[in-house]
Amino acid sequence: MVKLRVTSVTIGTSQPRELARFYSTLLDWPVTASEGPRPGEPPGDGWAQVRPPDGVAGATLNFEFERHFTRPVWPAVAGHQTASQHLDIYVDDLAAAVEWAVSCGAVLSEFQPQQDVRVLFDPDGHPFCLFL
């Protein structure tokens, strides 16, 4: 059997370098790659990457420019862009983690579906969950 292993997740965004800096600060992971716009492309073009530090488990996060990016609506609303994926981030203190995420630039969702999970939005509108 062929061995397959997921190593990274790529997130489409209108602001790849800014989103990489946000997640770098949030997770305390280094930005390991950052490229600006290609010739003739808009200023937001490019990509960036954050990786867990050596000895820390986790997948690499890539942020790639999407020319026609539309912020998702969560919870989903018919006829609007849906969030087709999101990151789940384990925390050991939910209240402190939410406070930290908000101080980094995240926004707490008004709708919270579970008691031990908090849904937040990153600066480009992607939802992510902090959970115990």
TrEMBL record:
CDD domains: VOC
InterPro entries, alphabetized: Glyas_Bleomycin-R_OHBP_Dase, Glyoxalase_6, VOC_core
Coiled coil: none
Protein name in UniProt: VOC family protein
Database matches in Pfam families: Glyoxalase_6
Occurrences of domain VOC (ranges): 5-132
Region ranges (Disordered): 33-52
Gene3D superfamilies: 2,3-Dihydroxybiphenyl 1,2-Dioxygenase, domain 1 (3.10.180.10)
Highest taxon in the source lineage: Bacteria
